[in-house]
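Backbone-to-sequence.
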């Protein structure tokens, strides 16, 4: 393919982007259906279809004419807009991603992960870490090697971090986690000696049917247009975005737990709000959709914790929640409810952790991953090190590996460098809150009245509409200056000191 001019090359780029979107739309829809609606014995046919569609995707992206087209556009960069340059850069990254790992190693790794998933599940159920250890050793070895393919100039773990949060480094994270540790570990110690908050009533019987109605009500409060956003049930809550006019979120209703589903709806709702507010102009281009894991989590955690667990928000929604469950909540005041959803208690399981202790769970994983990838910690030493860190940071004894280092699916899935984005997201959100308050002096009153429109407008203006146009750090800095974990530490300290009257 020879290009006469930039316009022609841009048309080829656009055609590639659109085909990619269409294929991933189809594949994501099949995966989404598998998690929500497909009958349980339907995996075989789906596997075949997905295999064929993935092969089409590979052919599409690995096609030699893409290299030619991207090289042409690179050579004519002076004639491209910022937006076009970013599209070229992101498409290039995508194309290189496929060719950067030798095909036979990639296949071997995929097979390893496939086996590791089943072995991990069994090992977790049977508390048998030694059964999983040889697989984890191989996964770690592959990741160390792949890091060299991704970016040989970087330390291995930095190269892996970069896969989830473009530009993130251990240097930034070391400072971040150190700040968190020195502030939160002593704060938690004080909380342990303070009067505990009661949340027993959250485990009364709450019929799923009523919880569903309540979830719909919360979608209304979040001002999510149900014409563009589905809400379904799945084993684990997640968000899938097909495009900015079709986002699907899921939740799971537990009848002996009122807040699990409600807060997962607010969390996934935060992801949906981001995707739905991406500017139309980027649709079906490499720029469409949220920019990174960290920025995405900043949005979901902002709505879930900073807004959703605030006194003002509880004031706004509690009367209505009580209407759905008049008997269960008959003896529960607004204050009781606020305290219950913010109860901080060191625990063993990350996914059930509260707002304050959550980042300590992440910090432990960060330290372990860093050492595993650097070769400073062997897989056989992992359980012991895990347990020691849980005791040191959270003050809890880990009774077995099932509730310890086997609890998360990330490592068996080969995701090293992914965990930190959860904690980063929380910290990004706190810094956004600080700057948002400056721009919206009557933010508190608006939340008290249940009106989140100003907040959504602020986030839309500074974060959402830009989709993936800027690198995460650039987007973040434009919105609220260079990343500074002090905002998050201050936010947590202030909130929990007041809550527990420390
Ligand atoms: Zn999330």
């Amino acid at each position: 393919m020879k290009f006469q001019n930039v316009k022609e090359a841009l048309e080829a780029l656009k055609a590639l982007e659109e085909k990619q979107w269409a294929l991933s739309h189809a594949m994501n829809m099949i995966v989404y259906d598998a998690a929500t609606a497909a009958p349980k014995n339907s995996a075989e046919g789906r596997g075949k279809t997905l295999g064929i569609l993935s092969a089409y995707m590979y052919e599409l992206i690995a096609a030699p004419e893409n290299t030619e087209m991207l090289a042409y556009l690179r050579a004519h960069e002076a004639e491209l807009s910022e937006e076009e340059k970013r599209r070229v850069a992101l498409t290039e990254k995508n194309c290189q991603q496929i060719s950067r790992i030798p095909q036979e190693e990639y296949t071997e790794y995929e097979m390893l992960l496939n086996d590791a998933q089943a072995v991990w599940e069994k090992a977790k159920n049977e508390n048998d870490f030694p059964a999983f250890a040889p697989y984890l050793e191989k996964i770690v070895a592959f990741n160390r090697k792949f890091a060299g393919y991704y970016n040989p100039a970087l330390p291995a773990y930095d190269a892996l971090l970069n896969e989830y949060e473009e530009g993130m480094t251990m240097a930034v994270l070391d400072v971040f986690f150190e700040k968190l540790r020195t502030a939160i570990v002593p704060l938690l110690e004080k909380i342990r000696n303070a009067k505990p908050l009661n949340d027993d009533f959250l485990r009364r019987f709450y019929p799923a049917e009523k919880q569903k109605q309540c979830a719909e009500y919360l979608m209304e409060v979040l001002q999510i247009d149900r014409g563009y956003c589905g809400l379904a049930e799945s084993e684990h809550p997640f968000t899938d975005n097909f495009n900015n006019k079709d986002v699907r979120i899921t939740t799971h209703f537990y009848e002996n737990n009122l807040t699990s589903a409600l807060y997962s709806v607010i969390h996934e709702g935060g992801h949906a709000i981001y995707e739905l507010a991406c500017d139309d102009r980027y649709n079906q281009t490499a720029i469409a959709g949220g920019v990174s894991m960290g920025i995405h989590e900043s949005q979901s955690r902002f709505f879930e914790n900073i807004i959703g667990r605030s006194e003002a928000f509880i004031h706004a929604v509690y009367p209505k929640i009580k209407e759905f469950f008049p008997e269960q909540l008959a003896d529960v005041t607004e204050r009781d409810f606020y305290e219950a959803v913010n109860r901080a208690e060191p625990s063993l399981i990350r996914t059930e952790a509260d707002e304050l202790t959550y980042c300590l769970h992440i910090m432990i994983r960060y330290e372990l991953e860093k050492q595993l990838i650097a070769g400073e910690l062997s897989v056989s030493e992992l359980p012991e090190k895990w347990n020691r860190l849980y005791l040191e940071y959270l003050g809890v004894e880990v009774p077995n590996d099932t509730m310890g280092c086997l609890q998360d699916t990330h490592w068996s899935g080969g995701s090293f460098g992914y965990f930190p984005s959860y904690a980063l997201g929380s910290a990004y959100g706190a810094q956004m809150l600080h700057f948002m308050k400056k721009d919206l002096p009557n933010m508190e009153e608006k939340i008290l009245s249940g009106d989140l429109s100003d907040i959504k407008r602020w986030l839309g203006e500074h974060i959402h509409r830009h989709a993936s146009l800027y690198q995460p750090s650039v987007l973040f800095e434009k919105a609220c200056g260079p990343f500074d974990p002090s905002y998050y530490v201050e936010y947590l300290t202030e909130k929990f000191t007041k809550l527990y009257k420390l």
